[in-house]
Specification:
Layout: H1 20-24, E1 30-37, H2 46-65, E2 75-80, E3 89-95, H3 104-118, E4 123-127, H4 133-141, E5 160-163, H5 165-182
Antiparallel strand pairs: 1-3, 1-4, 2-3, 2-5
Length: 183
């Protein structure tokens, strides 16, 4: 069951995070956590960075689901960085949805190999550690201290994030089950 009881959730930081924290914290099927960096030539171009991430996810979907559909995989993406100072990079998490016939280690190896081709930059991609779920979700949804630059793609003034349609659907299913359970 996807529902996580409140005593297992880390509520200490809920006011320092984007509101999506509470929804992501209820997902129990996280599989992969990753960090993608970009070379200097892509620091000023958000569209190119996004295209690289989308290509990575489409390659993953093709490899393990047979379809290059960006929404065939459950993923959450956070962009960090600012025009001055902090370099742009991505943090992301992937759920087990449609990846049930493989292992986290296999997916990590595949993503690492693909990022070397696509991003030609440093990445760290590893299996999700269920003992650190609260910390992982906390990090993915943490607000920056100052407003971020305007983005046409990402949500949030203080936390730039985006998720797949599959993940959004999963969140709605959990919310509906919780609502029906409470009635």
């Amino acid at each position: 069951m996807d529902q996580i009881t409140d005593e297992k959730r880390d509520l200490r930081f809920e006011h320092q995070h984007d509101a999506i924290y509470a929804s992501l914290d209820r997902i129990s099927t996280w599989m992969i956590y990753g960090h993608l960096s970009f070379t200097d030539e892509f620091q000023r171009d958000e569209i190119v960075r996004l295209k690289k991430f989308h290509l990575l996810i489409r390659d993953l979907a093709k490899r393990f689901t047979g379809s290059r559909d960006l929404d065939a995989i459950g993923w959450f993406l956070k962009q960090e960085g600012q025009w001055s100072g902090k370099r742009f990079h991505f943090h992301f998490a992937i759920t087990k949805d449609n990846l049930e016939h493989t292992t986290p280690e296999t997916v990590c190896r595949y993503l690492n190999k693909q990022w070397q081709k696509i991003g030609k930059s440093v990445c760290e991609i590893r299996p999700w550690d269920e003992t650190k779920t609260a910390k992982g979700i906390w990090y993915l949804t943490q607000n920056e201290e100052t407003p971020l630059h305007h983005s046409r793609y990402f949500h949030g003034e203080f936390c730039h994030w985006k998720m797949s349609t599959l993940l959004r659907t999963r969140i709605l299913e959990i919310a509906n089950r919780t609502e029906n359970y409470e009635k």
